[in-house]
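Today's session is about reading a structure prediction critically. Students often jump straight to the picture, but the first step is always the sequence itself: look for stretches that repeat, for charged clusters, for runs of hydrophobic residues. Only then move on to the predicted structure, which in these notes is written as discrete structure tokens rather than atom positions. Here is the chain we will use throughout the hour.
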Amino acid sequence: MRRREFFGLIGGAAAWPFSARAQPQGLRRIGVISAISETDPEAMPRLVAFQQALEHLGWATGRNLRIDFRWHNRGDVALSEEMLALAKEMVALEPEVILVQSNPGVAAVRQVTSTIPIVFVSVADPVESGFVESLARPGGNITGFSNFEASMGGKWLEALKQIAPRVTRVLALLHVETLANAGFLRAAQSAASSLGVTLTAARVHNATEIETAMMALSAEVNCGLMVMPHPVTTTNRAVILKLAAQYRLPAVYPIRYFVAEGGLMSYGIDLVDLYRRAATYVDRILRGAQPRDLPVQAPSKFEMVINLKTAKALGLDVPMHLQQLADEVIE
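Below is the predicted structure for this chain, in token form.
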């Protein structure tokens, strides 16, 4: 494909139609820990896709299945503490399988249980992160669906230079304590010199640190922004998008919704598709499969999205060949 060539629920789920409240006894029970808030507009599409896929496989809430939800509602320095608290709450419910999103989410759940099967979605570099022994044979009680390899750090930087060639200084927003984010940074650093870019990193844990880093960047010329995938950046995306527009910073993002909400460009995974695919592993575990025997799967869908309105506001003329490579162009 051409784009490959280019880059070489509030304590529970009261608000959800498939909530687990007031359901009969005898149901199979699973848990879902989300890396975003239940009020985030991205939450519903993901979990509806997950539920619909389960229904296609014969599992319906209220009939033979109960789903308990826990939500990440904070993008601050207490992230690990909150995730650990959510993991403890979920494990206390004794589900047969836990679906969990993000590296911090998996790190928290594995601290609490080594026996309950865990299926992850949108986890970067699960081997380096210590979650599985190998992609082919995970071992233990954890398997799932990964998002990005470390090399994506260099590809994001390349994408930014393609759409904003005048950029010579780039700030990477990341949560460096997450090993996968550190891997993205190393890959971007390796690519920086050949792209004529000076790369610096902002190790952010909350909105205040994001604001401080972006304000400092705005004082420079020919600057751009690269946002790494992590609950800290996704939860605080409104802050990032606002400041990128205010300081007129070309930016590349890892997921489409940044661009749909006003960002310039993204190259990344289809999270809804990952949730849909994750239902197949939950189904297989409920029917007796062991996580250690289910290989970790890589994304099957990547998408490049460009926002032409944002490009125009930044004074960028997006080349036609780049528009043609994009899976979606927002006008």
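Discussion point for the tutorial: The mean pLDDT is 90.
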